[in-house]
């Protein structure tokens, strides 16, 4: 059962090694679209609240053009202006109806965007809304010979929004709109809570892993003192329930993760996300069950149930406490899967995700600093390649597209911790991939196990420094995220140098680097071997 669980764990890590901070970009730089004086705006998302016969109605989102003036950033400064239909609808020639400051709604096609804007401005419009011929938004650029001395804002609406507004006006309904493009706050409190969740998860998992390692070490020391060599050999042949990563598996992990990521990118669809949801629920149930059983076992009233076992087909010996907790965990995961599209479903996703991460860090272990360096080094290159370099081959960031769940109809893949952005006028979520917690967490957990086995104090050990390095690396990631106007950032780009740099520098300074790099644990004396010379003297 332990091996099956570890295989599922590796699969989930591979799936969940996604980028961080995908809140949805509101500013889109485009180095391909030409820029020149009068045609140098960034492509920004614009909010278009509407009023039908004076009553507030739906709010739509469009994208601003490369040309024209910039829009207000605050809704209270945006004017409520009546919306009028263009006649002819394409606005490629002077409108037949006289405009007196209305916003004009026109169809895309038959002439350039700049020509439509110039015609609308000459007719007296205060702004122009262009209905796209498809549901997606399109970036409106300038032609090389176009007149870009345009004094009115221009933006594009998706086809469904434009058609709805057009239908209202055709039925002689008075439609008013306001145009504004709010800016995101420099820091949202969601990022603070997400940082605390990531750091807290690694902290809990590290102490659990170190406590388990110390219990195993104490048990082995007792066997070394009291048992015969035959018993030791039998004991050593048994399974410890842990999976130690080696150098080759660390490299193969990144290769497998890359292949799986490309498969996700190519096959991303509604049904494929459903498969990921099922995988996530299975892993979440296992993680939640493991965490609850371990937590409840600490209480005296549950210890009897935790220590009594029953044989279950296909699963072997299972404790009565596990059987009691399992139905709750399954129900929790199923309820989340069914209702995962409601506004507060992120809470259930985070609970299942944190439980899974803690369980993974308890099962999978880095045996020494050498393996940890190879694993994080490969993950570092993996993150950079699939976030930045992949744009040259696929014309978009593969990592970000997969994490957002584009073309799937879902709000991102489930293997993410997410918190809604509370003070962001654009809404969305701040997210972090499981891989950005699990992979650095493996080395942080190793540092605490080493400290406890060598009986180092918190200040003289490596854990406090590794934990601080992770926290600082994640903090720098959020700073970079905000400096890049919300563009998704590869967290490991910042976290890995902090952790490895701190660990290697400190180990070299203290003279522990050789032991950390090769053994990963202190040498323990063998009492029954030491007693042999005394027996010979007799």
Automatic annotation (TrEMBL):
<feature type="transmembrane region" description="Helical">
    <location>
        <begin position="426"/>
        <end position="448"/>
    </location>
</feature>
<protein>
    <recommendedName>
        <fullName>PA domain-containing protein</fullName>
    </recommendedName>
</protein>
<comment type="similarity">
    <text>Belongs to the peptidase A22B family.</text>
</comment>
<keyword id="KW-0325">Glycoprotein</keyword>
<feature type="transmembrane region" description="Helical">
    <location>
        <begin position="487"/>
        <end position="506"/>
    </location>
</feature>
<keyword id="KW-0645">Protease</keyword>
<dbReference type="InterPro" id="IPR006639">
    <property type="entry name" value="Preselin/SPP"/>
</dbReference>
<comment type="function">
    <text>Intramembrane-cleaving aspartic protease (I-CLiP) that cleaves type II membrane signal peptides in the hydrophobic plane of the membrane.</text>
</comment>
<feature type="transmembrane region" description="Helical">
    <location>
        <begin position="344"/>
        <end position="364"/>
    </location>
</feature>
<dbReference type="Pfam" id="PF04258">
    <property type="entry name" value="Peptidase_A22B"/>
</dbReference>
<dbReference type="GO" id="GO:0030660">
    <property type="term" value="C:Golgi-associated vesicle membrane"/>
</dbReference>
<feature type="domain" description="PA">
    <location>
        <begin position="88"/>
        <end position="165"/>
    </location>
</feature>
<feature type="transmembrane region" description="Helical">
    <location>
        <begin position="460"/>
        <end position="481"/>
    </location>
</feature>
<feature type="transmembrane region" description="Helical">
    <location>
        <begin position="371"/>
        <end position="389"/>
    </location>
</feature>
<keyword id="KW-0967">Endosome</keyword>
<dbReference type="GO" id="GO:0042500">
    <property type="term" value="F:aspartic endopeptidase activity, intramembrane cleaving"/>
</dbReference>
<dbReference type="GO" id="GO:0005765">
    <property type="term" value="C:lysosomal membrane"/>
</dbReference>
<feature type="signal peptide">
    <location>
        <begin position="1"/>
        <end position="23"/>
    </location>
</feature>
<feature type="transmembrane region" description="Helical">
    <location>
        <begin position="245"/>
        <end position="265"/>
    </location>
</feature>
<dbReference type="InterPro" id="IPR046450">
    <property type="entry name" value="PA_dom_sf"/>
</dbReference>
<dbReference type="GO" id="GO:0010008">
    <property type="term" value="C:endosome membrane"/>
</dbReference>
<keyword id="KW-0812">Transmembrane</keyword>
<keyword id="KW-0472">Membrane</keyword>
<dbReference type="Pfam" id="PF02225">
    <property type="entry name" value="PA"/>
</dbReference>
<keyword id="KW-0732">Signal</keyword>
<feature type="transmembrane region" description="Helical">
    <location>
        <begin position="271"/>
        <end position="302"/>
    </location>
</feature>
<dbReference type="InterPro" id="IPR007369">
    <property type="entry name" value="Peptidase_A22B_SPP"/>
</dbReference>
<feature type="transmembrane region" description="Helical">
    <location>
        <begin position="314"/>
        <end position="338"/>
    </location>
</feature>
<keyword id="KW-1133">Transmembrane helix</keyword>
<dbReference type="InterPro" id="IPR003137">
    <property type="entry name" value="PA_domain"/>
</dbReference>
<dbReference type="GO" id="GO:0098553">
    <property type="term" value="C:lumenal side of endoplasmic reticulum membrane"/>
</dbReference>
<dbReference type="GO" id="GO:0033619">
    <property type="term" value="P:membrane protein proteolysis"/>
</dbReference>
<feature type="transmembrane region" description="Helical">
    <location>
        <begin position="192"/>
        <end position="210"/>
    </location>
</feature>
<dbReference type="GO" id="GO:0098554">
    <property type="term" value="C:cytoplasmic side of endoplasmic reticulum membrane"/>
</dbReference>
<keyword id="KW-0378">Hydrolase</keyword>
